[in-house]
Amino acid sequence: MSNIPAFGLGTFRLQGQVVIDSVRNGLELGYRAIDTAQIYGNEAEVGEAIAASGVARDDLFLTTKIWVDHYSREKLIPSLKDSLHKLRTDAVDLTLIHWPAPNNGVSLDEFMSALAEAKQQGLTKQIGVSNFNIELTKQAIAVVGKDNIATNQIELSPYLQNRKLVDFLQQAGIHVTSYMTLAYGKVLGDPVIRAIAERRHATPAQVALAWALRLGYSVIPSSTKRENLASNLLAQTLELSDDDMAQIAALERNGREVSPEGLAAQWD
Ligand SMILES: NC(=O)c1ccc[n+]([C@@H]2O[C@H](COP(=O)([O-])OP(=O)(O)OC[C@H]3O[C@@H](n4cnc5c(N)ncnc54)[C@H](OP(=O)(O)O)[C@@H]3O)[C@@H](O)[C@H]2O)c1
Question: Which residues cross the membrane (predicted)?
Fold first, then answer.
């Protein structure tokens, strides 16, 4: 059984003092899970902000992601050790393969085996994948077993609900983490979401996050603003009705925001 916190703090795009402030604010407000990645170029700043916060390491859940240049057997574990050094910890809680990157010269078998080895060595408590479609998740399961895949972190918002993949993951017992739940802010202007927010005396961001939480997904919204970080966290206490959920379900529009060339697979 995987153990992934329902609510975390995203750090994509945030650099330097901006990410330090965001992590400091987040920790002060009660966030205890932080999502970073080697490619975000901010692991050292995340580590610095955590160290300065005084929050005990045991109370935190740290996720990082292996970048595609480090997928080979020789590079994956050394690159994770470098991440641990930057994050100032002996082990992270979760390490993900960031993108499937099917043509980068390293087989899925090789990088999944190396990731499993990192777990065996105690460098990461759990392992998982990100941006994997059904077929690629099946291949990853074939290498490490489904009990070894704690989550698949995927783009998932009211505009891109990824239902086929979610059904597959839930049947396999693999936890779903929704990234860009706010579609990088795009769903916040949606009239349906705004109407629900008004009725519930909530913000549109809280509505989108509460929708994802009610479906059982973890969320990791990011913000550079302390007030947004604070109000987003309160999505955990917002209860949406079945009718609200049905209205949001109808917003699906295959609205994919991220699809880096050469790295991404087609969604199902
Ligand atoms: N695995 C992957 O490949 C992958 C890819 C993308 C992202 N991620 C992870 O997922 C996290 C979340 O994605 P994201 O940061 O790209 O997008 P997001 O969380 O969907 O949206 C962030 C944007 O929404 C705004 N925002 C946040 N809360 C708001 C609020 N309450 N009211 C109004 N605006 C609000 C932020 O602006 P302000 O700063 O102005 O608040 C920012 O522009 C990332 O940080 C990263 O950790 C993973």
Answer: none
What residues are labeled active site? 40
Domains defined along the chain, listed by start: 9-182+217-222 (3.20.20.100)
Q: What is the pTM of this model?
A: 0.98
98 is in an annotated binding site: yes
Mutate to test the pocket of ligand 1, among 46, 160, 179 (most ligand atoms within 8 A of CB): 179
Query: What would the pLDDT profile of 189-244 be if each residue is shown by its tens digit?
Result: 999 999 999 999 999 999 999 999 999 999 999 999 999 999 999 999 999 999 99
Determine the atom of ligand 1 nearest the C-alpha atom of 96: 1
Structure tokens given for 147: 């009990």
**Which residues, in sequence order, are CB contacts of 6 under 8 Å at separation 6+?**
213, 218, 219, 236
